[in-house]
Amino acid sequence: MKIKNPSLILLSSLTGLLLTVPPTLAATNHIQPQTWHYIALKELVELSGCTIKSDIFQENRALKRSEFATILKTCQAKISQTFSTGLENDVAQNHRARLQRLLKDFDTDDIANLEQDKYKQEDIVNSQITQLQTPVDTTRKINNLDGEFKLPIRNENSTFQLKPLPTSPKLNTEISSKTVDPSMSQVTNVSQLRDVSPEDWAFTALSELVERYGCIAGYPNGNFLGNRTLSRYEFAAGLNACLQKINQLIAAKKTDFFPQEDFAKLELLTKNFQSELTAIQSRVDNLESQIAELESRQFSTTTKFGGEVIFSLAAAEGGDPPGTGEGNLAFNYLARIGLATSFTGRDRLSLILSSGNFDNAAFAGANSLNSYSALLSFQDDRDDSVVLDSLEYRFASFNNRVVWTFKPVGFNLSTVLTVNSPYLSSGTGSISRFAEASPLFKIGALDAGIGFDWYVGKPLRLQMAYGTRNSNDPTDGIFRAKNSAFGVQLLFTPSNTIATGLHYINSYSEDGRLNTFTGSFNADTSGLLLEPTQTHAVGGSFQWRFTEKLILGGWGGYTFTNAVNSDKWANTSTYLVSLGVLDPFGQEGNLLAVLIGQPPKLEDGDGLFFGPDNTTSLHYEVFYRHRFNDNFYMTPGFFIVTDPGHRYQNNNIFVGVLRSTFRF
User: Engineering a disulfide at 418: which of 123, 189, 277, 571 sits with its beta carbon 3.0 to 4.6 angstroms away?
Assistant: First the structure.
């Protein structure tokens, strides 16, 4: 079908322009070798004997935040075990404090939020503890096939995330407010000049002082490890730590005698490294000043505040039939703000407010393309009104291995069951509703529920969830709801590059509808059985990062719907495969994705009003996410749907989108 809509031509031009953005415009976010965090993690990894890729630190190269977080996550348990709470000496305490600080500054949930395309196993390790959702109560009517029906514009995870609090089953140690010992914060390599060798007098003198007074925090035996050459600044940091330790011992009267020769060594060392000591003290003063300023300006010490605003330009064409083919250029927005707080450090209470201006189901409405296939991933009809999107409480138990979820607003099965898709994000993931995750997780159009995520042990997790619609109605309640669903899933991660999931869903519907609002109207209504039904759905998902930059993914599912009071039945199928290219033009945080799949199709059944779908519709989608910095993303993309609604009479649908996402 020839595209005549000038709006689509405009969006295509903008897509081409963004694809040629020079690499200098892409912000980088690396941990440099001279920073405290880099040195602290390197030493903890070496001292604990954690096994990682051997050349990561030996190359002395900057690490991406994603790489850094992965190393920290991999070695966290080993470090905690090495310096367990059973060791109460100063050295062990300092190491535990450093680990706590690293976990606080590089929470792996936060890294997953910033760089979810890096496949950090966010959906495999942290039980989506930071994932927030939007409700399903707002509805709009559209016409399709035979009569009107209500469409909840949004009924899935938006993955709008606040800054996370440490409440996931991956935690083996409790994040505390304990800060790093001051002497440790000064051990920082700020120069690559290697001026002090083990043969120098200064090196020998300081080594003797270290062994005698135990004044270098961070080394179990009080010695310089490796007998290696040090830069002058690194050496001065050790000297500064020794000066502080000796002053503390004298002030506490823990040493009755301080040899004159030691005093002479300190005096000479201080004189020879005066400029470096002054520079270190200046940096410490600046850091203390910046920390004090940040603390005075922070929103709260226990509550995190965040938000996301999405603007989009979108145009569509085709679909005449099933619609009118009208899809002029439209400007829409979706805004969300949220709060998250923790009471114990291992729990999380969050709420989200949202507003948007999508109206009349947008391109999916009867006056436009009239098909679920045209729904966008960030589409949320709010009529510019502010509503409560999500209210949720989660807490960890059983040594942080089980996370419990209670969500009276904005619940669906994917609140607890990991969808195992790298494109589940309204702001930075796929641009269509269908391609973001398996429709099976949307079954029931639920709004409230409970569940748990149990980290059984590497490589297995067990997840269960139960939700209902209109559970606040006392005549129906939780266990007599007219629409409900129970889901269970096993996640298997045999390696850091492979994740698979198997799930089973059992749902009840008073009117026989699946209510996923994807695929054909015929499939979503179970062929208009229009009577109480029980649905058994089975599905699977996988992700495989087979190279550093390439991710192969996919999912599939089949539903078996049976009428409760008759012999009628209906079966549907769906699947999708995807290929993601990370940093396609050498720009960190960018993602190019190609997705191809079959929206839910009514395969066969008995007592179907329209019979099975008479052809197979395919969904083709391409989008390119460009990350300018941590707070701004722009995503041009388009998708084509052949024979929408799985009816050969319908004409193809073309949709182009330019999405801008701002996060704070």
Answer: 123
Half-sphere exposure of 271 (CA within 13 A, CB side): 6
Token pair 């973001």: residue: 436
Q: Which residue is listed with tokens 């250029």?
A: 329
Half-sphere exposure of 50 (CA within 13 A, CB side): 26
Q: Which two tokens stand for residue 464?
A: 């269960």
CB atoms within 10 A of CB 208: 13
* Eight-state DSSP code of residue 163: P
Span 339-379, pLDDT tens digits:
999 898 889 999 999 999 998 889 999 889 999 999 999 99
CA pair distance 300, 84, nearest whole angstrom: 31
Neighbours of 251 (CB within 10 A): 8
Question: Partners of 310 in the beta sheet?
Answer: 334, 661
Of the chain, the end-to-end C-alpha distance in Å amounts to: 42
Q: What is the greatest pairwise CA distance in the chain?
A: 100
Within 13 A of 67's CA, how many CA atoms are on the CB side? 17
pTM (two decimals): 0.64
352 strand-pairing partners? 338, 390
Angstrom distance (rounded) from CA 335 to CA 660: 12
Q: Which candidate, 222, 247, 226, 236, places its Cα nearest to that of 91?
A: 222
- Give the tokens for residue 621: 């989608």
Residue 632 C-beta-side C-alpha neighbours within 13 Å: 5
Residues in the chain: 664
- Judged on CB neighbours under 10 Å (0-12, 13-18, 19+), 579 is middle
- Report whether the peptide linkage leading into residue 135 is cis, meaning its omega lies within 30 degrees of zero: no
- Four-point Cα dihedral 255, 257, 262, 264, nearest 10: 120
- The secondary structure element, H or E, covering residue 112 is helix 108-114
Percent of the chain as helix, strand, coil, to the nearest 5 = 25, 30, 40
The model's pLDDT over 173-203, given as tens digits with 9 standing for 90+, comes to 222 222 223 332 333 222 223 457 776 777 7
Packed helices 65-82 and 90-105: angle between N→C axes, nearest 10 degrees:
150
What residues contact residue 349 under an 8 Å CB cut-off, 6+ apart?
Answer: 340, 341, 342, 343, 392, 393
Closest residue by Cα to residue 249 from 210, 222, 215: 215
Residue 219 has pLDDT above 50, yes or no: no
Nearest to 597 by CA among 581, 621, 614: 621
Separation of alpha carbons 602 and 432, rounded Å: 21
The residue written with tokens 């010992």 in the block is: 181
